[in-house]
């Protein structure tokens, strides 16, 4: 309340009535909004007292969490209160073994040290807290400590370490979905870039942080990021963009009723206007910031605003008003023991006194400024010592890690050499085995090739042996029998056992037997030739009907002799195959039909075209004896033996085998359909001649 009285007296004394009444109105309007934080503190304090007043109450985790919440509420206003409450919380946490409570208390103690400028103490406490959090796996607390430590390193000028911690915190926060920490780490990274002079990267990081805060609903922090972005634009010599973001920060804070944010925004706008030579407008912004700070009770901001107003008044030549303002600000700065503001206050006072002609007081004030400068220099030296000590520790840690790494590298190198030697030995052994196996495989291939050749020779010998046996069997059965019959007939005739008429009748039978032997010899020669040589077809285009007619004319007498009718229903058509082979097939089919037909039977030869497969189908249908069902599957096999015809005709049994071989040589098909006592249909299909061939 003392500061509020000083502010009111100052404005009344200098008759700034319009500004005074405006600020007083703002104070009345906002006073009901900004008491929430104080009420929250009061409720937390009351809760702590209530716990302590309970008879026999033991300090538990609920009590410790309440203390930690209360300490958090003092972060921005009273570092000493944060320190006292957090130390108490840390004691109780250690007593009951509450690890998370202890880590949180240590975070608050580190923050209090930081706010008081005790950077070395802040680093030590927060590093210990980080080790404990890592051991317990408290990811959220690890993220907070990364942010806090990076801020300390920023202030002592260790930018690389600050950036490493910020990126580590960003990684942890992103992996665990801690939205606020992700945004805060982007903010810290932006501050590092700004201090390094990477202004575009700084703006991008600030903008990313603001976007994340806005998405997560943390509206009360947006004005700080707008101020940071405006500050970067000002460094980039873009004053219009800087003013735009300062105005945006003020608007956002006002809409939320966030008075501390409005103080920051008004101060930023004042600094901007003062730097651009608009001291009068800057003074108004400082005055508005001062009035709100008075209402909030933030004495540091009140003192800072007083000094800035004094500077503006000095620049505009209003020395008396400037003197009053600097005295008020200086008194307040000394009361709160703010050395930097006190030093600035003595400097401004010295300049004002010199401008007013009070040279002796001006000299005294400047001497005070100089003395405080020495104190600040000592503080700066202390900060540099902290930085040097921390850098030394950092270097020691790196050296320890490097030594450990070198040891591991040496062990790894020795292990690598060992593995390399073993690998070379194994490769050598594998090569020897490969050569040995190669020789074995080569020998095996040679043996297999010899064996294959021997097997082929054995199969050929076996085939020749079977061929020989079959020739002997056929000759013994189908040649010896008719020749013996012929010889017997001739011998009986020579002995006079037959007269002339009987001999004429026997002559016809002998002729028939000789025809059979002739057919047999022809089939035998052709079959033997196909077995002994690699016969191949020589296809050409020919007319099928002419071929069938010639074959019928050759066998027509045999059919008439047995009383068999032959019907030619073939149609003209051009086939493409070996004509001589097809002749043999047609002759065999027709001869077999005659052989197994008797008086009154009928044989029909016909053709048809299969346009889909481009084949010409020739069939020989008879009404003869037919074939038993059990013999049909083997009718075209070499194992099939010939049976006697209706007039005891004999055959080799090789004709149908030849037919199958010849038709297959010409890319054709062959088949039979038959039923015992109802006749048979033998057919084959050969390619049609293509048009234009």
UniProtKB/TrEMBL annotation:
InterPro entries: HATPase_C_sf, HATPase_dom, His_kinase_dom, HisK_dim/P_dom, HisK_dim/P_sf, Sensor_HK_Regulatory, Sig_transdc_His_kin-like_C, TPR-like_helical_dom_sf. One of its GO terms (molecular function) is phosphorelay sensor kinase activity. Its EC number is 2.7.13.3. Pfam families: HATPase_c, TPR_12, TPR_16. Residues 474-690 form the Histidine kinase domain. Gene3D superfamilies: 1.10.287.130, Histidine kinase-like ATPase, C-terminal domain, Tetratricopeptide repeat domain. PROSITE patterns: HIS_KIN. It is an enzyme of class 2 (transferase). It catalyses: ATP + protein L-histidine = ADP + protein N-phospho-L-histidine. Keywords: Kinase, Membrane, Phosphoprotein, Transferase, Transmembrane, Transmembrane helix, Two-component regulatory system. The chain crosses the membrane at residues 415-437. This is histidine kinase.
